[in-house]
Design a protein that fits this description.
The complex is a heterodimer of chains A (about 325) and B (about 325). Chain A has about 325 residues and is of the alpha/beta class. Chain A has twelve helices and ten strands. In chain A, about 35% of the residues lie in helices and about 20% in strands. In chain A, the strands form two sheets. In chain A, strands 6-7-8-3-9-10 form a six-stranded mixed β-sheet, with helices on both faces. A four-stranded antiparallel β-sheet of chain A has the order 2-1-4-5, with helices on one face. Chain B has about 325 residues and is mostly helical. Chain B has a single domain, classed as MetI-like (MetI-like fold, Orthogonal Bundle), CATH 1.10.3720.10. The chains are: A alpha/beta (about 325), B mainly alpha (about 325). At the A-B interface, helix 4 and helix 8 of A face helix 7 and helix 8 of B.
Chain lengths: ~325, ~325
Amino acid sequence: MSAEEMLLDPPNTADDGSEALATGGHARSVHPPSAPGVAPGGSDEVPPVRTIVLDRPPSPVAPPVRERNPLRAPSASTAGPERLRLSEVSISYAGKPAVKSVSLSIHQGEVLALIGPSGCGKTTLLRTLNRLTELTPSAARAGQILLDGEDIHGLPDTSLRSRVAMVFQQPNPFPMSIFDNVAFALREQSRKRPRRRELEPLVIDALSRAGLYEEVRDDLDHPALRLSGGQQQRLCIARAIAPRPEVLLMDEPCSALDPVSTRVIEQLIGELRRELAVVIVTHNLAQAQRVADKVAFLYLGDLVEYGPTAEVFDEPRAQHTREYVRGVFG
Amino acid sequence: MSAPIPYLQGAPQPSSERGRRSSPWTWRWSDRLVLLLAWSAGIGLCLVSAAIVLYMGYRGIEYLRPGLLFTRPAISTSQSHSGGILDPLIGTAILTVIGIALAFPLAVCSAIWIAEYGRPAWLARVVESSIEIVAGTPDVVLALFGLSIFQLGLLAPLSFRAEGGGVYGRSFIACGMVLSLIAVPPLFTATRDGLQAVPAHMREAAFALGKTRITTIRRVLLPSVRSNIATGLTLGISRIIGDTAIVLLLLGETLHIEAQGSFPGLNILRGTGSTLTTYVYDNSPAGEGAAPQKAYAAAFVLLLFVLGLNLLVDRIGRSHGRRMGLSVPGGAV
């Protein structure tokens, strides 16, 4: 029995096939009894479902539960050109795989949510997209990531990171004024204040796009650390989108915020996706349903399921996705 | 008060006298003893420092005249003719400038290297322990070592040749260079600790904006540890101002600033002089004892210098913290 299997099975199960079926039966019993044997998805073209348990076919899938989730806003697909393409990306820390052979494409105008239980490699995958994983000396990467057709490893990391911006879990403004926080992102490497008058329109533009300008217009020179948590996070978004990036990476941007600030940021994500591609890591499934156009479900480093939000949440093809979105584990 | 519930009587009573906000008189005797010791240690230290400041103030102000600060000292056996402390004041200022000008880049750069790069690890360990060794070396040992170095023929331009042809090895430059060594450790430690206390997400935020490591250091990290650097700077300056042994051995101990050579500016640096500390020493009853009253006055000026410096840095640290929106607990020092 492989280590993966050990991790997948509940601790009390034995390592034979009947137990795996029992797990499936358990999941089925959560939902109303249904006719077995219906093909997953139901369409002609079914993308492959990744097998989690090695050398074993995917468990039979219950028929889709056709209920619309009231949480989700009507999805107006605004998919634009492809920005990022990941092919067979694997990442390991000190030889231990964290992300295994993930292929995805990320389009402008779309919000892609990466979901999955803790430690499944979501954040690692996200941080690889702007090569922040390189800061960890033990990290190694295989596979190819293309930004507009260019391999990101051919780009200097500084220019890559201004094209693929990132917002972190904890609001992390610099201990400077609000203006300087945004201006810092706009300034050339080390130049100090290339004339404030020149930068001011750009700073104001970034703050308005982040929905913060009206609140801070008179306090641009006040310290950023005096803002509330939600405002700080929007300042971080303003800072990230100031150089007009093509992709915005968000690592659980609302997990440190209260519900009101969370709603403001979610609305902001909905507006921002018009001009850029957004990849968001979230533990909050309701949030993924609210903001995402597409969802990728990762489990122990594997990309288990990837598709439009409605499909992943309502008609998940893989056993693990269904269990996860139903809250059986995670 | 209601009667105790019978079935609870055997159970341990919720302690009423300890744990809650209780008076120390109800504490166990060992706790009371420790509290007493802690209090008396704190108050004792306050009394000692108050005694120093008040006594030096009392004696200093008694003999301190404004003219004292602006007249040059003179050699005389009577106090009324021995002049002021202008030369020692200038000497202290020159040495502070030289010492800090050398120590500051050295200490801050090595702190940055240790905190932000620190590779290879063995070299980082060697650097840190070297600085610890310098910090632990008695200053008179440093002074002796410095004297033997600066008396090398090769380093004659840093001081001057005495009449016999030997290198004198004592000058403002020589003294300032050795003094910079004693200012490095506090400055290094304060800067390194400040940098290590900057949370990692601050660096990540800068990297994620496409900034290079050096930009991150210059524009984000160094500004946010400015108050730490200021603290280290005060400690370094205080050590330079207060040092006596190195000055005694390496500045030549002339009462006046004696220039050497003819190049303006440089001739002073190559020359000899005195500082407030050596002036105090020489004029105190322990030294030549010629002018004990002036020693008190000079000592008071010295004390004011250091206290003023501490206050100034404290203010800088606080106002910087306020501007940045950081919470400033007790000030910098």
